[in-house]
Amino acid sequence: MLSFIRSDLSDLKAYTPHPETAMEGVSATPIRRDRLDTNESPYDLPAELKQKLGWTYEQLIETNRYPDGTHQGLREAIAEYVNESAGPNAGAIAPSQLSVGNGSDELIRSILIATCLNGQGSILVADPTFSMYAILAQTLGIEAIAVGRHEENFAIDVDAAQQALETQKNPPIRVIFVVHPNSPTANALTPAEIDWLRAIPDNILVVVDEAYFEFSQTTLVGELNRHPNWAILRTFSKAFRLAAMRVGYAIAHPDLIAALEKIRLPYNLPSFSQAAAELAMQQRSHLLASIPETLAERDRLYQALSNLSGLTVWPSSANFIYLRGDRQTPPDLARLAAELKTRGTLVRYTCNGLRVTVGTPSENQRTLENFQRLLGASS
Ligand SMILES: *Cc1c(COP(=O)(O)O)cnc(C)c1O
């Protein structure tokens, strides 16, 4: 280890989006890979929108000039979209309540810097959940306290969480991260969990990550203006088909947004990414038209996987399905993931379970057939 590098980084591994499984190389690599391990939309931008974006690139973007560091146009477009979903009693979200990041990952890091750095706070998460909160916290020397979830529906163990809030002192918990609906377990927040969040005192920030909002159609944005200690995160990486462009946004009190704006790099978002996200906002009804198909396919996949022996499958409010082995005859799911991979189906093995992204109808069909063959053969 080079002696000038922080010693606490030596335990950290770089994030690998597609961890290699033990079976890698056992059989020939299949030609087709159904990438159902990262929860993106299965659909690329439609060709005519790519063409429009290409035109914007050719005609309007001067590559020798820095991008718009204020993101003004994009923030206005996002504000309009967010307000459509906020409900009548919400009070409008203004562009000054939005900060745009290089993916919502950047915003998570900015939130950690703005709240917890320099020994001023730790964070609370409920596992299993999105791993980036704890990973980014660790890179900044911030402690992540993890509580559990109830296995029947993966609701947060609120008693344990409350206990952690009361006992954690040096430094105290400054931020609670929840995902609505959660990844990898696909459950939306319950009314009881939301009540608990409403009662969190003002000196603790509640971050509600709504990365899958377009699939769940359930949001807390309508309550945001009543809770200055809430922030909502959204992304263009999932339903809007722009994972390659790296655009996410935070919706929050203007003072928190001002703090995030101080922390971010001045030109965090390339002009091309801003143009792509603005196009997605203009064309939102076109892009979101694929959602009903994804939800119908999710329900079909859920039914079919539930019928397989040896698995417990949880209902989903998102575009992915979580399952584990049942108690009596659990299959070896790490091995199953590896075998699925050799058959061209990539799924995510995590926290003793599998997370399967809903793909196109033909991808889902192949997924089911592979599950059926492998579990049929091994049970
Ligand atoms: C996919 C995902 C994101 C998106 O992150 P980006 O950096 O915007 O791509 C954020 N939060 C959760 C829970 C996710 O699953």
First-to-last CA distance: 47 Å
Protein structure class: alpha/beta
Percent of residues in helices comes to 25-40%
Question: Uncertain spans, ≥5 residues at pLDDT below 50?
Answer: none
Kindly state the number of beta strands.
13
Please, what is the CATH homologous superfamily of the largest domain? Type I PLP-dependent aspartate aminotransferase-like (Major domain)
- Widest sheet: strand ordering: 2-8-7-6-5-3-4
Radius of gyration: 21 Å
The count of helical stretches stands at 13
Determine and state the CATH class of the largest domain: Alpha Beta
Form type: globular
CATH topology of the largest domain: Aspartate Aminotransferase, domain 2
Q: What hetero molecules are bound to the protein chains?
A: pyridoxal-5'-phosphate
Percent strand equals 15-25%
The helix/strand order is EHHEHEHEHEHEHEEHHHHEEHEEEH
Give the CATH architecture of the largest domain. Answer: 3-Layer(aba) Sandwich
The number of domains is 2
Could you characterize what this model shows?
The chain has 2 domains: 16-44 and 289-375, Aspartate Aminotransferase, domain 1; 48-282, Aspartate Aminotransferase, domain 2 (3-Layer(aba) Sandwich), CATH 3.40.640. Helices cover 37% and strands 15% of the residues. It has 13 helices and 13 strands. It has helices spanning 47-60, 72-84, 104-115, 132-139, 158-167, 191-198, 213-216, 254-263, 271-282, 284-288, 291-306, 333-342, 361-378; strands spanning 34-35, 98-101, 122-126, 144-147, 173-179, 205-209, 230-235, 248-252, 311-313, 320-325, 345-346, 348-350, 353-357. It has a 7-stranded mixed beta sheet, sandwiched between helices. A 4-stranded antiparallel beta sheet has the order 9-10-13-12, covered by helices on one side. A two-stranded parallel ribbon has the order 1-11. A hairpin with a 2-residue loop joins strand 12 and strand 13 (353-357). Helix 11 (291-306) packs parallel to helix 13. 39% of the residues are buried. Bound molecules: pyridoxal-5'-phosphate (PLP). Pyridoxal-5'-phosphate (PLP) binds at residues 39, 103-105, 130, 179, 183, 209, 211, 235, 237-238, 243, 248. Pyridoxal-5'-phosphate binds at residues 39, 103-105, 130, 179, 183, 209, 211, 235, 237-238, 243, 248.
